[in-house]
Amino acid sequence: MKTKLVTYCLLGALLSGLPSTRVFAHEFDGDFRIWNEFMWRQYKGERWQTYTWGELRWVDDASRLGVWFLQQKAYYKVTPGLSVGGGGAWIEIKRETSPSTTLARLEFEANPTFKLGEHTSLQWRNRLETQWWQNNDWTTEIVTRHRFRLTHKASWLPRMTRLESSNEFFFDWYDGGFNENRLRPFDIHFQFWNKTSNNIFFQLRSLKRSGSWTHAYTLGIGMRFLP
User: Fold this and answer.
1) Domain encompassing residue 181
2) How many H helices and E strands in the chain?
3) What is the pLDDT of residues 168-215, one digit of tens each?
4) Helix, strand, coil % (nearest 5) of the chain?
5) pLDDT at 23
6) CA-CA distances (angstroms) from residue 26 to 16, 21, 30, 50, 219?
7) How far is CA 121 from the centre of its chain?
8) Which of 93, 174, 219, 226 could form a disulfide with 141 if both were Cys (CB 3.0 to 4.6 A apart)?
């Protein structure tokens, strides 16, 4: 039963990328972007962990800073296969041809994890976001996000610790539909020093606006500071 459940979850993750794949060949903006991710973990115990997350997103063929945000999170491990968490984020979006705007949000998560083997696991992250947009008179919007992430501990490259592959889709309850998909076919993690780790990933981000899908390619580079 457990094996079948994991198989269905993984199949759902792959199928969630189909809307993006179907229109990829003929309808995308083709923008290249760079994301810089930073994480500072303040505490990690047997059940609790807290950390601060930050991002810089360079857009328009990585020529200018388009988004930066800060996020504070806390997680509690209910069982070895289930964690819950919450937090908040402040996001600044810089536009080139229209006024910039701010997004504030609260986040709540329930994340089951399935062991697929000694070195492999599948996490199913489910996040509920309550959002307030400055350019929409701070009207409350509800978004749910669902990410399937496959993790395999590996040392195929020098200092490599694990390989991840994930797909995440967004459902906007304000507009009433799926409006975003983020496919990361690979996310490679390294540890060069004792208290830090680094990762590099590729992402295809797809957005649905006015009934049409547009796409952007992202190269991501991250650094994590450990307690």
Assistant:
1) 2-225
2) 2, 11
3) 999 998 877 899 999 999 999 999 999 999 999 999 999 988 888 899
4) 10, 70, 20
5) 33
6) 19, 10, 10, 43, 22
7) 17
8) 174
**Amino acid identity for residue 206 in this structure:** S
Whole-number average pLDDT of the chain: 88
Beta-sheet pairing, 160-172 with 48-59: unpaired
Domain of residue 138, CATH code: 2.40.160
Domain count, the chain: 1
pLDDT tens across 151-178, in order? 999 999 999 999 999 999 999 988 778 9
Give the rounded distance of the alpha carbon of 100 from its chain centre: 23
Cα–Cα distance measured from residue 190 to residue 158, given in angstroms and rounded to the nearest whole number: 8
Nearest C-alpha neighbor of 127 from the set 175, 187, 66, 173: 173
Q: What pLDDT does 9 receive?
A: 46
Element (H, E) at 1: none
